[in-house]
Write a structure and sequence with these properties.
Number of helices: 18
Distance between the termini: 19 Å
Order of helices and strands: HHHHHHHHHHHHHHHHHH
Mean pLDDT: 86
Oligomer: single chain
CATH superfamily of the largest domain: MFS general substrate transporter like domains
Helix content: over 70%
Radius of gyration: 22 Å
CATH architecture of the largest domain: Up-down Bundle
Number of domains: 2
Strand content: under 5%
Shape: globular
Low-confidence stretches: 1-6
Length: 410
């Protein structure tokens, strides 16, 4: 009996992948910590609620519109575009130092430009990652990348935690500048890639059944996640900070686990599992929201679900759906729900005291379970032949293990 030949899994070319890893890692760490520090600076102004609302409204509208515009541009010289985007980001971050001394109109203008600078390059940044990978390994490398992002945010956040706003913005500007330098150096050895087909229109993409079936649950998750954030802060109290650090660590680990599973059993199963975990965590929290044990259970479950979603929704799925088309518009549409929903805590926070905790968490659990329904009809984006190949690999491995056990017994 001849041995079964199993096709080797495709690997990425590190000359192409390293620049993508650098730009995604640097950009998402920069975005998360810059926005967090920017929010802290605006809250520190102690301005009237309508003014604070106006500043954040301008920011969220700017980042959404600029993301769409950046995706429509779809620059052919993407490396040059991304390098310029990172350099401008460093300059913009340095300008945030002036927030405490500025007048309100100036801070609104700064909020506008920060949103524009943050959003313009994000679709191309993530499309760069998708182009450097293939469907068969995109989940795994997405998990590795997001795991690194989680660790990077955690380490840098702890490092600058004791700094004042001026020093924090200076460090973040330096971080962006270092990312720019590393990206420029890494692209010198990058190979010329085969150009993808011209991008589809946003209208065409939104009329695709598979896109809608994945986008609807993602919208539901984004709305629930951000709408519930002020409620969680009120319930957790001082535990919220510790919960954030615990969740980051778990997310980093399960981003890798979720990415590997996505390349073995498919994206759809991983996403459905994530939604089920989210539904369970809110259901548990609704039973006894005042008990610390439910806080820890929620934190662990949320970290696991976020890890799975980070590797699939943020890094993998939209690149898969784009296929042979340029991917900027697909990532832009995938990012819009997340960025727009980020505005919800600003709106919900003043009314948290009027909302019943148990009702809020129960409704969140119900709608998260409901979000699974569109996924039941969504097609799998991992190629069918790849899934069969993974099953064959497991079969061959099990057969070899059984054979080895039999030989040892003899």
């Amino acid at each position: 009996m001849q041995p079964v030949m199993v096709k080797r899994r495709p690997r990425v070319d590190w000359k192409d992948f390293l620049p993508a890893l650098i730009v995604v890692f640097n950009s998402l760490v920069w975005y998360a910590l810059t926005f967090s520090t920017f929010s802290r600076a605006i809250d520190g102004l102690k301005a009237a609620a309508p003014i604070t609302l106006a500043i954040f409204t301008v920011y969220y509208v700017a980042i959404t519109c600029s993301g769409i515009l950046g995706a429509m541009l779809s620059p052919r010289e993407r490396d040059t575009f991304l390098a310029a985007w990172m350099l401008i980001g460093a300059v913009m971050t340095a300008l945030l130092i002036t927030i405490p001394r500025n007048t309100i109109p100036i801070n609104i203008i700064i909020s506008l430009f920060l949103g524009i600078v943050a959003g313009t390059g994000l679709p191309s940044c993530l499309a760069c990652f998708a182009d450097a990978t293939v469907a068969e390994n995109r989940g795994t490398y997405g998990g590795v990348t997001w795991g690194a992002i989680g660790i990077g945010i955690l380490v840098l956040a702890l490092s600058i935690n004791a700094f004042n706003l001026i020093l924090t913005f200076a460090v973040l500007a330096l971080w962006r500048l270092l990312g720019f330098a590393a990206f420029v150096i890494s692209t010198r050895k990058k190979k010329k890639t085969r150009p993808l087909r011209d991008p589809s229109s946003f209208s065409f993409i939104l009329h695709r059944r598979d896109m809608v079936l994945y986008l609807v649950p993602w919208i539901m998750f984004s709305l629930i996640n951000f709408a519930e954030a002020p409620m969680l802060d009120r319930v957790f109290g001082d535990f919220a900070t510790l919960a954030g650090f615990i969740e980051f660590a778990i997310t980093g680990l399960f981003a890798l686990v979720g990415g590997m599973l996505a390349d073995n059993v498919g994206r759809k199963r991983v996403i459905i599992t994530g939604f089920i975990i989210l539904g369970v965590e809110y259901a548990v929290l609704s039973l006894s929201p005042e008990m610390p044990i439910t806080w820890y259970l929620y934190t662990v479950f949320d970290g696991i679900a976020w890890g799975m979603f980070a590797s699939v929704f943020f890094m993998t799925l939209w690149g898969d759906l784009a296929g042979e088309y340029q991917r900027e518009k697909y990532y832009a549409l995938g990012g819009i729900p997340y960025f727009l929903a980020g505005f919800l805590p600003v709106i919900v926070k003043p009314y948290v005291g009027m909302i019943q905790t148990v009702t809020a968490f129960s409704l969140a659990s119900f709608f998260l379970f409901l979000a699974v329904l569109p996924l039941m009809y969504a097609p799998e984006t991992l190629p069918e032949k790849t899934i069969r190949q993974r099953e064959l690999e497991k079969y061959v491995e099990a057969a070899e293990n059984l054979k080895n056990k039999s030989e040892r017994k003899e």
